[in-house]
Every structure is written in structure tokens, then in C-alpha cells.
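Quick one, C-alpha cells below. Sequence please?
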């Protein structure tokens, strides 16, 4: 590398005290090296200062330049006179005058602005007699580094050898004034405002941090331009480069979509996970993607993928780079999950789904190893990791001993291990088959019972009247109320109705049990297009409130024949799921209950007060479209005459014996 004496045309000195400098010809390599101790007073850079200027070759041909001023000061202290000869100062003042002694330094100035990178070497010196430790001795100016509008400029400066940490300065140059980016709905417009005669090149490219740039679109254009991009084409690393079509022209680059939410969303949607046999995987994306990767276990039937401790650490993933999974064996339930730092979006891929088939109903066991060969095992379930030999009410706890035997007998597949932990996948097929066999057996038994009940009731239906079926449900709280219900049932039998009530089926009710009896009667009534009548009393209301608050565990049947208590387990789901309208009717007796006492859940169906609302009640019990509205009033009077004495007697003397009625009874 040749040297030349004197001041370069790129280097200038502002007025200072005894400073001189010259520039080495050509660029040098930027090798800062390690910091060393100063052998005495030395010159070091203390501050960088920049200024934007134009370097014009002709009146209309100018380039943008960055002028850099390097401020210098003395670092270190003078030593004893015996060592002064090491620093270029005469040890004997009589042999060399102080004005002829100098402090010298080689100062490196580094400049980076994509796509330009330069490194120059300056030699500066100052008279030792004018140098004071810690004081500034002036500055030198480098004029200048060419740069493009909108570029990011980075500067470094240090000495060779390096006596202190290098100076650095980063500066964003102003953007090109005639290139603007604007949005219009889903479109983005690139507006280039130049003269009609100017020729320039325009390039769109992906600026990869982890690799070279990738061109996307390029064109040579003339004059003003308005280029439209669709919002789906935007990515954070999509950049625009513009330059005049002239020799050695400076190119201006802009990356305006780095923080654009649409570009961030497009990048995440374009990202793909793929498997690279035998144990590799890769995240492919057009740009660098800030995301964390974790290995997770995806159980069949949906639900979140459960993160696994090892083998992947939750660190930012390098895109388009092959990564290895430290697994012993592959499994279709093992998935890689990416979590984006932008809005916490997730990308999940079960890597071996194509080669190993669908997800398996296997149980993942997590083994933790302690000192002295102690180990513990737990099963990964949606609720967490359940110890195998625990009393928890989960599938893994119920099958804990069997799973432990499967592991010890070698039936489980080891997926991963280290010194402290291991992962095992144990098949559950045989346990699932046993469970389904029991389910099918129970269903077959229930179907047989229902079929026998159907055959038994078929003969009764043929013999009964052809009117609409009405199943009366009530709470048997005392004999007086039972007599009142019996009177109502007897009166309704005089109408074209087939009345079913447990008062007339005690033998059948005792043989089958309240729940089975009600289930069969409700099924038959609704299948025939009938209606279930809920007769509310204070006891029935209290029983409903118990069910609504505490569930089935809080409510037991009040007696061996109390079908109402048994029926709530089937009635309540119909109301809770909106299936009650058209199938249920409510009623209560005047003087025994207020309308507000009926639970709100049951008011989704008509609720009548008897006998005051008997016409409306009987009209609701009629089959839809029945052409007999004119006789409802007369029939209501008949039913009221039968019902009123029993109601009066109950109100005056509660607990009186009931009367079952004289209608045809089932099962007695």
C-alpha cells in the first residue's frame, strides 16, 4: 500500500494549534484489534461529527456526500524523562528542541451505507509542546463519503493500535424527495415525481438479514410513474431501490413496510413449516421472522397442543435454515409450534402426519429421574401431568398400574431422553376397545329394555282412546294434593284425552322404578304427539330449586312412587336446551301457589292457573288444529265442577285422603 506525503484532496484541516495530517492512498482493511495500554501520551479520536454536502462534477451533476469531522485529544500522561525517547520526544533537551518533537497517531475511519463500505487511514501529528493530557488538540475533516438519500450511515473511528473503545455514529439520511409511498384502501401506490425526460431504474427486492437480497421486480422507466401494489404483496423486508440510468450512479433504497401491520400479517401467513428427513425441520418465510419454536404433543379430538419440556428451547428461529430435532423416534402426535412476537399468532405443523398417518390415541408419559435411580412418572393430559399412581379422576390415573406395566414390559416407544428426563408414548388401543365394548353392551341392554316397554305399552295404546296423550307430573307431598291431582285426571279423562298419571300405575311404577317408568311414559307420550303437564306445588317448586342450585346429588326422590323427583333429570335438560316449547305445559292451583313462585326456567312454556284459566289450559291440551273451540267453555265448566270440591277441601283441611278417580287405570 503506497503512501504519499502532504494533504489529500479528501482531507482538510480547520484552524488548529500545530495539527498536521495526511491520508493513505486507497482503502484499508478494517481490523480494530484488541485494546492495548498506551505507552505514554497518545492522540485518540474523541468525537465524530457529520455534515451532508453536495459534490458537484458539473453544475447540474451533483452527488450527496457525508463530510466527517474527527475531533482529537491527548490520552495518557507523560512519564519520567528516561522513557520519553519512546514517544518521539528527545530525552536530552539540548540535543533536540521541543518544537521539533511530535505526538503521532494512525486514525482509522470506517464508513458503511448499503451497498457501500469503505475504510480509510489518516496519519495525524501535533507538536508535543502544545499537547496537554485530556485536552483537545483540534480536528481533521474527511471530505467526503458518497451516500444515497434515505440510506442508513454507520461510522466507526479508532487508532492503530487501539488504545480505547472505538467511536461509532449512526445516522439516517433523509429520504428521496421525489419518491413517496401512499395507501388507497387495499392498494399501495409508489409515486415517482421526476421530469419526463429523466430515465431511471426501479427495483423491488426482498432485503434478507440472514442472506443476500432477492430481486422480485425490476424495470427501466422514464418520467413520472404511479405504480400500484396490492396489499397482499407487502412484506416487512420489501424494499424499493431507485437510481438514474447513468454510469456509476448512486442507488437510493427505501424499506417503508417494516412496521406495516398488513405486511406483518402477510409474512406470518406466508410462513411454512416443513419436514426434512430424517429429523430435520425448517421454517420457510420471505423475510426474517421473529418467532419462538417449541415441540408440543397434539392429542386427537382437538384441544391445544401441549408444550413439552425439551427438546426445543424457546428461542428466536432462523428462517430458511435446517434445524435438527434431537429425538430418538418419530411420532405423528409430535408437532412443532411457532409463536410470533407480532400479535402472538401461532403456526403449528405436525411434521410426520403424512408419513406416519393420523394422530394416535397414545398416552405420553414424562419420566423424571432423580438421584440414586429414583424416578417418577406422570401422564400428559389436558388438565396437566397426572402422576400414574394417583387418585385423580382422570383416564391416566384409572389406568396407572396398567400403563406402568406396559412401560416395564417394553410396549411403550421412547421418543427422547437425557440424564434427567425421558418421554414415552404408550398405546391406548386395547383400553379403548375394552371401554367401547362395555358401552355397546350397556346400549344393547338399554335398547332391549326400551323395546320390551314399547311392546308392553303398544297393547295399552291400542285399547285406549284415540285422544291426545297427556302425562301428568306432580310432587306427591301429601294425600290431599294427590286427591286433587286424581280429581283433575278423572275430569280430563271425560275429554278426548289419554291421561297418564302415576296414581293409576303404582304396580308398574314399583316394578320398574320411578326413573325408568317416567322415561318410558315420556318417550311414548311425546312420540304420539302428546304433551307433558307439570303441576307445580310448593313442594315441587322447592324440589326444582334444589336441582337448579345443586344438581342431582342434592335431590333424592321423596318416596318410592315420586315420579316428579325422578323426572327432573330428563325434564330439566329439555328446558335448558330449548326443546320444551310445544312438548310441555305448566299449571298450578288457585290458592296454593302464586304465578311468581314458578321458577323462571319453566316459564318458557305456557303456565296456567286452575281452575280460573281452565279454557286456555284445555285449549292448549287439544291437538293442534282440533276443530272444537266452541265447546271449550262448556268442558271447562265440567272440569271445574269436578275439581273445585277437592281444591276447597285441600285448602280447608290439608292432608285429607285422595281419590284416584274412576277413569281406566294402567297397571292396577
Amino acid at each position: 500500500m503506497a503512501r504519499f506525503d502532504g494533504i489529500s484532496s479528501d482531507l482538510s484541516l480547520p484552524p488548529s494549534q500545530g495539527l498536521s495530517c495526511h491520508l493513505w492512498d486507497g482503502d484499508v482493511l478494517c481490523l480494530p484489534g484488541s485494546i492495548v495500554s498506551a505507552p505514554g501520551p497518545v492522540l485518540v479520536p474523541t468525537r465524530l461529527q457529520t455534515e451532508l454536502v453536495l459534490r458537484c462534477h458539473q453544475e447540474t451533476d451533483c452527488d450527496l456526500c457525508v463530510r466527517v469531522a474527527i475531533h482529537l485529544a491527548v490520552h495518557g500522561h507523560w512519564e519520567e524523562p528516561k522513557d520519553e525517547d519512546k514517544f518521539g520526544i528527545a530525552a536530552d533537551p539540548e540535543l533536540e528542541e521541543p518544537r521539533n518533537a511530535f505526538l503521532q497517531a494512525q486514525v482509522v475511519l470506517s464508513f458503511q451505507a448499503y451497498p457501500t463500505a469503505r475504510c480509510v487511514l489518516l496519519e495525524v501529528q501535533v507538536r508535543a509542546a502544545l499537547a496537554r493530557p485530556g485536552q483537545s488538540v483540534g480536528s481533521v475533516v474527511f471530505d467526503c463519503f458518497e451516500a444515497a438519500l434515505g440510506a442508513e450511515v454507520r461510522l466507526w473511528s479508532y487508532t492503530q493500535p487501539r488504545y480505547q473503545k472505538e467511536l461509532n455514529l449512526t445516522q439516517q439520511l433523509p429520504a428521496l424527495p421525489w419518491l413517496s409511498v401512499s395507501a388507497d384502501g387495499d392498494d399501495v401506490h409508489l409515486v415517482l415525481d421526476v421530469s419526463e425526460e429523466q430515465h431511471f431504474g426501479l427495483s423491488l427486492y426482498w432485503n434478507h438479514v440472514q442472506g443476500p437480497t432477492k430481486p422480485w421486480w425490476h424495470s427501466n422507466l422514464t418520467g413520472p410513474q404511479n405504480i400500484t401494489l396490492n396489499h397482499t404483496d407487502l412484506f416487512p423486508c420489501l424494499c424499493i431501490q431507485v437510481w438514474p440510468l447513468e454510469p456509476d450512479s448512486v442507488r437510493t433504497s427505501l424499506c417503508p413496510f417494516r412496521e406495516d401491520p398488513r405486511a406483518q400479517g402477510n409474512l406470518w401467513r406466508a410462513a411454512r413449516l416443513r419436514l426434512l428427513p430424517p429429523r430435520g425441520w425448517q421454517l420457510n418465510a420471505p423475510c426474517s421472522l421473529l418467532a419462538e419454536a417449541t415441540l408440543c404433543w397434539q392429542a386427537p379430538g382437538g384441544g391445544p397442543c401441549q408444550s413439552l419440556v425439551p427438546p426445543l428451547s424457546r428461542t428466536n428461529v432462523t428462517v430458511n435454515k435446517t434445524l435438527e430435532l434431537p429425538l430418538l423416534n418419530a411420532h405423528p402426535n409430535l408437532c412443532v409450534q411457532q409463536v410470533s412476537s407480532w400479535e402472538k399468532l401461532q403456526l403449528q405443523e405436525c411434521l410426520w402426519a403424512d408419513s406416519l398417518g393420523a394422530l394416535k390415541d397414545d398416552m405420553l408419559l414424562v419420566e423424571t429421574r432423580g438421584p440414586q435411580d429414583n424416578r417418577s412418572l406422570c401422564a400428559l393430559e389436558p388438565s396437566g401431568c397426572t402422576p400414574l399412581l394417583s387418585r385423580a379422576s382422570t383416564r391416566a390415573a384409572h389406568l396407572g398400574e396398567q400403563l406402568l406395566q406396559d412401560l416395564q414390559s417394553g410396549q411403550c416407544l421412547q421418543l427422547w431422553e437425557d440424564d434427567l428426563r425421558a418421554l414415552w408414548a404408550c398405546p391406548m388401543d386395547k383400553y379403548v376397545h375394552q371401554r367401547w365394548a362395555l358401552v355397546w353392551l350397556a346400549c344393547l341392554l338399554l335398547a332391549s329394555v326400551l323395546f320390551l316397554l314399547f311392546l308392553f305399552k303398544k297393547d295399552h295404546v291400542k285399547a285406549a282412546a284415540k285422544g291426545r296423550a297427556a302425562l301428568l307430573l306432580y310432587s306427591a307431598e301429601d294425600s290431599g294434593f294427590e286427591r286433587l291431582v286424581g280429581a283433575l285426571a278423572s275430569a280430563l279423562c271425560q275429554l278426548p284425552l289419554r291421561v297418564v298419571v302415576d296414581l293409576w300405575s303404582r304396580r308398574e311404577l314399583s316394578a320398574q322404578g320411578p326413573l325408568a317408568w317416567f322415561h318410558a311414559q315420556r318417550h311414548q307420550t311425546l312420540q304420539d304427539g302428546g304433551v307433558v303437564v307439570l303441576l307445580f306445588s310448593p313442594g315441587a317448586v322447592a324440589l326444582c330449586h334444589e336441582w337448579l342450585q345443586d344438581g342431582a346429588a342434592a335431590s333424592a326422590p321423596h318416596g318410592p312412587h315420586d315420579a316428579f323427583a325422578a323426572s327432573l333429570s330428563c325434564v330439566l335438560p329439555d328446558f335448558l336446551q330449548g326443546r320444551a316449547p310445544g312438548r310441555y305445559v305448566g299449571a298450578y292451583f288457585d290458592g296454593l301457589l302464586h304465578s311468581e313462585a314458578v321458577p323462571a326456567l319453566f316459564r318458557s312454556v305456557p303456565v296456567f292457573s286452575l281452575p280460573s284459566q281452565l279454557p286456555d289450559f284445555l285449549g292448549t291440551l287439544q291437538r293442534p288444529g282440533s276443530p272444537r273451540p266452541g265447546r271449550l267453555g262448556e268442558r271447562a265448566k265440567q272440569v271445574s265442577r269436578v275439581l273445585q270440591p277437592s281444591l276447597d277441601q285441600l285448602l280447608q283441611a290439608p292432608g285429607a285422603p285422595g281419590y284416584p278417580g274412576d277413569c281406566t287405570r294402567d297397571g292396577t
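The CA atoms of residues 504 and 665 lie 5 Å apart. The mean pLDDT is 78.
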